[in-house]
Amino acid sequence: MDDLRKNLIQQLRFLLWISIGSIPAALIRWQIDNYFFANILGCFVLGIFIGLNFNFRYQLMLCSGFCGSLTTFSGWMVVLKDYLNRKDFSTLFSSIGLPFAFGLGAIFLGFSIGKLITLPKHFRSHS
């Protein structure tokens, strides 16, 4: 039972770290009325965070929580569904291809910038 309790406490701590990152990103996302910009910004920021090689709890907070809340897959799908319903195939395909291309570019650019930054030891991953 003691192991179960320790595991539950650990999972609650993980949830807390993710929540701390999610809340400000959700508020930022709420103010951005453009799924393309939100997703590209999220990719860029995620690339920086990955490049910085944060320790696990900061990865939970910043990568899973903040970037996961900032980006908007479901909003993108709604926009794509609307283009499909209108049979606007050229806009549909560009709305699929451009976010992938720009998203990949943004995450690689962010990662390259993140690798140039040296974090204080407290924030770094031990690996």
Could you characterize the architecture of this molecule?
With 127 residues, the protein is an all-alpha fold. It has one domain. Helices cover 82% and strands 0% of the residues. It has 5 helices and no strands. Helix 1 runs parallel beside helix 3, helix 2 packs parallel to helix 5 and helix 4 packs antiparallel against helix 5. The longest helix is centred in the first third of the chain and has 30 residues. It is globular, with a radius of gyration of 18 Å. The model has no long low-confidence stretch (mean pLDDT 92).
Cα gyration radius (Å): 18 Å
Major β-sheet profile: none
The amount of helix comes to over 70%
Report the principal-axis shape. globular
SSE topology sketch:
Layout: H1 2-31, H2 35-52, H3 56-70, H4 73-85, H5 89-116
Helix pairs in contact: 1-3, 2-3, 2-5, 4-5
